[in-house]
Amino acid sequence: MFAVIKTGGKQYRVAANDVITIATLEGEAGASVTFGDVLLFGDGEATQVGTPLLSGIGVTGEIVQHGRTRKVIAFKKRRRQNSRRRRGHRQDFTVVRITEISAGGKSAKAEPRKAKKAESAEPAPAAAE
């Protein structure tokens, strides 16, 4: 089950348990967000295309973290004019994990993440000589 959502002026194809990086959203890490602008929905059997949006389909996600991208430098120089300009820009972003896609009676939920097992501190057995 997948959906195409629109947020921040861009479109993203998402499925349950996907992690996407999008434009900044309001909210703290761990908060739940709902995306209302669903453009396309597919459940494996049929695909629904919105004109322009679909109603009755919801995509829910959880904010993982907020951050900023690496700095991009815009440098302009006009030769022999003693004219230079240097500007930097860092774009803000939000990382979101898609937790559920629901359509009517159908729902695709993300399975909870399993904690990694800590490796035992026992040394490997030595080879017999």
Automatic annotation (TrEMBL):
Stretches with biased composition (Basic and acidic residues): 108-120
MF-aspect GO terms: rRNA binding; structural constituent of ribosome
GO biological process, one term: translation
Record InterPro entries: bL21-like, bL21-like_sf, Ribosomal_bL21
Keywords: Ribonucleoprotein, Ribosomal protein, RNA-binding, rRNA-binding
Stretches for region Disordered: 77-96, 103-129
HAMAP family per the UniProt record, alphabetical: Ribosomal_bL21 (MF_01363)
Name of the featured protein: Large ribosomal subunit protein bL21
Gene that encodes it: rplU
